[in-house]
């Protein structure tokens, strides 16, 4: 299986690093393209993969084409690549908001869409993977194998990708926002910034791991640390009174709506 990444950006680097490190694909079977020669040189030096500045020529050699350019670049690069595709090639798109039907453009092209998130950069990502009209289970398996090299890789329906975008695609930003707020409070309480950063990060990571490892519901775990009249109770009461949960739910629904709008142009 020869794979080409169109666009040697941050997300492409995360996936290339993951699949090479984990032996999912050999470096000589991977090629990256970009307009920036320095990026291409970096990929060759760092990962030993092939390189090209000719998208169509590279795509013509590939069994799997990963579209990893920004969505706004897609209309510029796709026509040449599309005409160069090998018969039966699989197109995996990690571009946000471009429906598989737009990529296939009326042709019977096998397309799988992936919505990754930025913790993939350290191998801790969360990706939703969805088959387009002509993709089959083996195509989904290929995309899942690639994305599993950089984190959790979950199969969904394409119409669910807007919700996945709102949940895990944009999700890291919500966690950073929570951390920002916790650290602002820590500063107000006079804690040293290094100390509060270490404690806040360990708290978020520890809570997530606790939930993962116990398999318990978030609400149950929260109840366990919230004794009536205690400190956590005082904090949660304040959040409830100020509608924090409603705001977060509304925020995710707004992200989903925006994702739909962007997909519809
Ligand atoms: N859910 C998420 O959090 C998430 C996160 C990351 C990415 N994504 C998706 O992943 C995709 C890649 O994102 P990214 O952050 O990796 O972007 P990026 O770092 O900008 O990578 C895109 C690369 O494509 C290159 N490029 C531009 N024009 C090109 C052309 N004509 N031919 C070949 N390469 C070209 C860019 O070069 P220049 O920089 O020189 O223009 C850049 O190196 C996006 O479509 C995005 O929607 C989603």
Secondary structure layout plus pairing:
Blueprint (H helix, E strand, L loop, with lengths): L2 E4 L3 H12 L8 E4 L3 H11 L2 E3 L2 H6 L3 E4 L6 H11 L5 E4 L6 H5 L5 E6 L9 E7 L5 H12 L2 E6 L4 H9 L1 H18 L4 H22 L3 H7 L6 H11 L2 H20 L2
Parallel strand pairs: 1-2, 1-4, 2-3, 4-5, 5-6, 7-8
Antiparallel strand pairs: 6-7
Helix pairs in contact: 7-12, 8-9
NADP nicotinamide-adenine-dinucleotide phosphate (NAP) binds next to helix 1 and helix 4.
Describe this structure in words.
- By secondary structure, this protein is of the alpha/beta class.
- The chain has 2 domains: 3-161, Rossmann fold (3-Layer(aba) Sandwich); 171-263, ProC C-terminal domain-like (ProC C-terminal domain-like fold, Orthogonal Bundle).
- It contains 12 helices and 8 strands.
- Strands 3-2-1-4-5-6-7-8 form an 8-stranded mixed beta sheet.
- Strand 1 (3-6), helix 1 and strand 2 form a beta-alpha-beta unit.
- Helix 7 packs across helix 12 and helix 8 (171-188) crosses helix 9.
- The longest helix has 22 residues, at 193-214.
- The two termini are 34 Å apart.
- The mean pLDDT is 97.
- The structure holds NADP nicotinamide-adenine-dinucleotide phosphate (NAP).
- NADP nicotinamide-adenine-dinucleotide phosphate is lined by residues 6-12, 33-36, 39, 55, 68-71, 73, 76-77, 94-96, 115-118, 169.
- NADP nicotinamide-adenine-dinucleotide phosphate (NAP) is lined by residues 6-12, 33-36, 39, 55, 68-71, 73, 76-77, 94-96, 115-118, 169.
């Amino acid at each position: 299986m020869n794979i080409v990444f169109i666009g040697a950006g941050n997300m492409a680097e995360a996936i290339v690093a993951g699949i090479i490190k984990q032996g999912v694909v050999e470096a000589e079977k991977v090629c990256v393209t970009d307009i920036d020669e320095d990026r291409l040189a970096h990929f060759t030096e760092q990962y030993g993969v092939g390189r090209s500045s000719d998208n169509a020529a590279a795509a013509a050699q590939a069994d799997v084409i990963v579209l990893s350019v920004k969505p706004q670049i897609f209309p510029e690069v796709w026509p040449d690549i599309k005409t160069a595709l090998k018969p039966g090639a699989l197109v995996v798109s990690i571009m946000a908001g471009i429906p598989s039907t737009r990529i296939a453009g009326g042709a019977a092209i096998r397309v799988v869409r992936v919505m990754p998130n930025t913790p993939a950069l350290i191998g801790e990502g969360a990706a939703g993977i969805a088959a387009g009209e002509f993709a089959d289970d083996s195509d989904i398996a290929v995309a899942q194998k690639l994305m599993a090299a950089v984190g959790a890789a979950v199969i969904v329906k394409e119409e669910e990708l807007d919700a996945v975008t709102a949940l895990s695609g944009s999700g890291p930003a919500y966690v950073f926002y929570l951390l920002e707020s916790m650290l602002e409070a820590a500063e107000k309480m006079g804690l040293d910034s290094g100390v509060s950063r270490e404690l806040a990060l360990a708290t978020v990571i520890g809570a997530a791991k606790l939930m993962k490892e116990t398999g318990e519901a978030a609400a149950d775990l929260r109840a366990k640390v919230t004794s009536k009249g205690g400190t956590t109770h005082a904090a949660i009461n304040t959040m409830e009174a100020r509608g924090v949960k409603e705001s977060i739910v509304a925020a995710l629904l707004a992200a989903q709506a925006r994702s739909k709008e962007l997909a519809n142009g």
